[in-house]
Amino acid sequence: MNVEDIKSLFLKHKESSLNHRYITNNNIEPLLKKLDKSLSVNTIGKSVLGNPIYSINVGSGNKKILMWSQMHGNESTTTKAIFDILNTLLSKDSNLDFILQACTLCIIPILNPDGAIAYTRVNAKNVDLNRDAQHLSQPESKVIKSVFDEFKPHFCYNLHGQRTIFSAGKTNKPATVSFLAPAQDKDCTITSNRKIAMEVIGIMNTMLQNVIPNQVGVYDDAFNLNCVGDTFQSANVPTILFEAGHFYNDYARDKTREYIYISMLESLNYISNNIVDGSLYKAYFDIPENEKCFFDVVIRNAKLGGKYEGELQDIGVMYHETLKNNKIEFVPKVEKIEKLDAFFAHKTLNANGFNVYDVKGNELQLGYENDFVMMNNEKIALFEQ
Predict the structure, then answer these.
(1) pLDDT tens, position by position, 164-176
(2) Which fold has domain 3-292?
(3) For residue 74, which of 108, 117, 107, 109 has the smallest C-alpha distance?
(4) What DSSP state is assigned to residue 283?
């Protein structure tokens, strides 16, 4: 497949009912009812608060792929991409029957429905499910483990979202999509099944370089057996972490969603048409490692009083995601006041030596939260979308 064909399929089959960041069971259940007429949709368990956890099975091939999204309830971009992919695969005019003939997909669109409702990383008992792979203390953790044991996948897709702080290497390029072939031992041995995961990641990266050049990263592979990906990799199943990151001015993550779709569809195409043995794994090491080099906003060369008197400072601002009235709002918060020459910003303002105040005319302080600051007697918006 070429990238233009995949982009065309995305535009045609993008699920129009799923938008922005707040995605819960209420959003996907109408879609599951439609799907239930043509394939297998099941309730595979319940969350701490009794909300259903669903799975979707599609395809009849011998290559079995397990995917799960929203293990962290506030990471919904990959959930949107899942339904875009399903729309594509189930459309007769997509000419992708070969994928469903070669593969069987088991998809859990929202593993943490309580976290999705509350828009939190953790579940209703304040547990990070991605640190519960060994203890299996939570019902959601038991669900994913039981599906893994019963389905016996040949590949696992661990679908997540990442913060706006990450860059692809130490560059002024955001990590719009990131991957990882998790370690399976403390020595981070490049095992045969890790090579298989690395080969698939390398193929996806090659495709993504056509649309987001130098905006793909990989995570540090430090081993933690409490993480689900590390556990499944340790069970000798090639496991791939997908991370949906930031694209310019895409705080709704609806553009990044397209790049996750491109990655997923290209990977399914590759797995369907090839015997993936890990022999092409070395391309994985061409992908730069993620660094934490970004703020959402940096105000450069600001004049401040108090302890900052005498030298121009930079002001680093991060947006904090807040759930209000079933919608995600982005609240700017001052995180650092210092020289930030080693950092980049998704939005840069230059104070040019003028004083920067809060909207009440007070000296700016760490922790200040507001959509605006005052600069050269002008009210400046910190967040615009």
Answers:
(1) 999 999 999 999 9
(2) Aminopeptidase (3.40.630)
(3) 117
(4) G
